[in-house]
Amino acid sequence: MRASTVLTCLVMLLPLPLAHAELPPGFQRTVLLGDLCKPTSLVATPDGRLFVGLVGGTIRVIDNGVPLPDPLVELDVVEDNEQGLVGMELGPDFATTGALYIYYTAPPDVRNRVSRFTVVGNSIDPASEFVVWENAPSITVGHQGGGLAFHTDGTLFIATGDQGSSGTAQMLDSQHGKILRVNPDGSIPADNPFVGLPGIDPAVWALGLRNPYRLFFDELEGDLWIGDIGSSGGPAWEEIDLGLAGGNYGWADSEGENCYVADCSAYIEAVHQYRHDDPLFATPTLNACVILGPVYRGGNFPAEYEGDLFYGDWSGEWLRRLEFDDVTGAVTADVLFDSAPDGGDVADIVQGPDGALYTVSVGVIWCFPPGLGTVEKIEWVGTPPDVVANVDDPSGSEPHAVQFSSAGTVDIDGEPLPLTYLWTFGDGGTSTDASPDHVYTEPGLFLATLTVSDGQYTVASDPIEVLVGDPPQLRRGDCNGDSGFDVADAVHLLSTLFGGGGSIDCADACDANDDGGIDISDPISMLDTLFGGAGPLSRPYPGCGPDPGLDGLGCVTPACP
Asked: By the 8 A CB rule, do 256 and 228 touch?
């Protein structure tokens, strides 16, 4: 028997045996609401709200990222295994009518129902219910379906499961294991593929499905996508199908590449499918539950994501995306977007009006308060530029002409604007060229910096040191400037660092370990050299000379006569 979407799929919450990967660079995940008891469905309104459906009948509201304390409604539903509140969809006219369509299991005779409710503000009056469709009383608690989607012609598509009776999926007088198409008032469209044929339910639009839990229309192309959850065990398959009027997807005669009868050639093949024991997808128990998401048309993600179909797996706890050939429509790549367990035991994936993706993760089967279900937002926030700055000649006598370079600087995501550059040369001069020339006319140690902006992020390089003129002569370790090196130099530096002692006129000489900074490690190096048997200090030592390296430390008064 196939893994159920609320019970069997959820008992396997262990991580996948996949290499862990975070969201791609530039994407950010935010938990908007947690401690939920089995959230199963999600819709995003045009004004930025999220309605979060819990299997027990409560619908929570998140208003532009802020969870509201009061529920939208608390419906009386039958909650048992896969039964309960399992799907929601906004009416095409929601902005003016507040129409919200809800797929739930209704008491007292335990039948699946799709009803229209009216949202006023952030609440629903249960008395506003109008029953659009309802099935015969349920024959089992599994395989209820739950997908809802509106076509641009105003008709409503309803995905129903086979309710554990696999033979019903091929029976045209049964509404189990089907895609149904009805008008918003519950009437049957005259152009449904089986209208007028004897012995066939006229609401049937497509057949041969096991548990089509989610449906989505591609808002640009108009294609209907179906995520059909497969049976249990390693040889079983999960399917993503392209909906066709009158189409037969083969269950229970076929599933994925499995054909259980003599000939399956008449059945529509899945656009994409994966086998439970494929190492790319497998869980330790070889269960899987495909959760279809939208074809991305949000405009918030980079251009390479536009037109990709996102999907997840409830058992596998990952998110992936399908890329398509622009001409043939064939799948060209199946790309991991977020690996387990970060993808979550996702039950619904929707695109918001802001172009972000929103997901609900169920959490656990049994909710001992608080629950573990979450609502999460995945958005593109961009990637800072990778800044590289160099100079061709870091030292020389004045006037000293140099060439600065930004070669190697990369705008990783190419967004949102072309890179801009700002060089500060340390002597008061600046340039907005990518790789400018500059002439230093006065002696000194100058710190040049490159700052790069892509319109969203601004990143500065590490300072580049340019030494102009003859470098000061110094003796490494002669911190007190008495032309020698002894314990008095260590005492002088310790006093300066911790006791408010005298000033340091030649910081470069006090940098005993030559690490480019002055701290407690320098008097330790001095004492180790003097008394601990350590080797000599770095050059210039023991005689006078210039520091062979540029480190930003200078000498106000050279420490050599």
From this structure: no
Nearest to 480 by CA among 402, 557, 418, 399: 557
Query: Which residue is listed with tokens 């000379």?
Result: 545
Long-range interactions of 118-122: CB distance < 8 A, separation 24+: 119/72, 119/94, 122/49, 122/61, 122/63, 122/68, 122/70, 122/72
pLDDT at 7: 34
Query: 363-402, pLDDT tens digit by residue?
Result: 865 555 566 899 999 999 998 999 999 999 998 999 999 9
Asked if 412 and 380 count as a contact pair (C-beta separation under 8 A), the reply is no
Cα–Cα distance, 508 to 512 (Å, whole number): 8
DSSP 187: P
- For residue 235, what are the CA distances in angstroms to 249, 263, 334, 466, 493? 18, 19, 20, 67, 73
**From 233-242, 292-301, 489-498, 540-549, the region with the lowest mean pLDDT:** 540-549
Dihedral, CA of residue 38, residue 184, residue 158 and residue 358, to nearest 10: -40
d(CA 499, CA 513): 21
Q: Give the pLDDT of residue 369.
A: 54
pLDDT tens for 405-436 read 999 999 988 777 899 999 999 999 999 999 99
Determine the pLDDT at residue 559. 61
Question: One-letter amino acid identity for 373?
Answer: G
Using CB atoms within 10 Å of the CB of residue 110, give its burial: 0 to 12 exposed, 13 to 18 middle, 19+ buried: middle
**Phi-psi label, residue 303: left if phi above 0, alpha if psi -120 to 50, beta otherwise:** alpha
Q: Name the amino acid, one letter, at 278.
A: D
Best CA proximity match to 219, nearest among 167, 285, 295, 290: 295
Tell me the percentage of the chain whose pLDDT exceeds 70.
93
**HSE on the CB side for 205, CA within 13 Å?**
23
What domains can you pick out in the chain, each with its CATH number? Answer: 8-380 (2.120.10.30), 390-468 (2.60.40.10), 472-561 (1.10.1330.10)
Q: Are 130 and 115 in contact (CB under 8 A)?
A: yes
What average pLDDT does the structure give for the chain? Answer: 91
